[in-house]
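Cross-check.
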Amino acid sequence: MKEIVFNDFNLQDSDMEDSVVRVKGLIINSRGKILLAHNNNTYQFPGGHQDEGETRDECVVREIKEETGIDVKITEPPFLCIKTYDNNYFGTGKKVLNSIYYYRFFTDDMPNFQETHYDELELATDFNLFYVVFADLENFLKKSIDDGMIDPNIGREMIQVYQIYNEQFGGF
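Predicted model, tokenized:
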């Protein structure tokens, strides 16, 4: 698994007051399309936060089910982890190590909205799912950044994940 570390403040593990683990799934179908979520005025790969006592694999399966209604199976470990040493986590003043693990899934199962379980924020911010042609994802994200349709930091991170995915697996 490739690991990328962002540590703009040169923090040490011993400086961290807390840690957060999140998982994201790149869900690709046989037609070469990837499933994206739009929530809280930004695009993202489906996923979420790991609960206490839950493994990363359990978390990604649960989060994908909650957000898409799709049952996925773990067939391989995550292909990427992005770790960020944050000096002021979401404006809280806390030093937090944020780790995001990226998995890939191949399925032609369509989202099943009868099986989703959105949290209050997702419900309040009109959580939506849609497909984008995988080969066009980078251009889609760049245009979304330019048009103000995605948080620029999240957009750049998604582009980086897409590029690393292509380096590791040669595209779709």
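Residues 152-169 form the longest helix (18 residues). The beta strands are 2-6, 18-28, 33-39, 42-44, 47-49, 80-86, 96-106, 128-133. Passed to J.P. for a second look.
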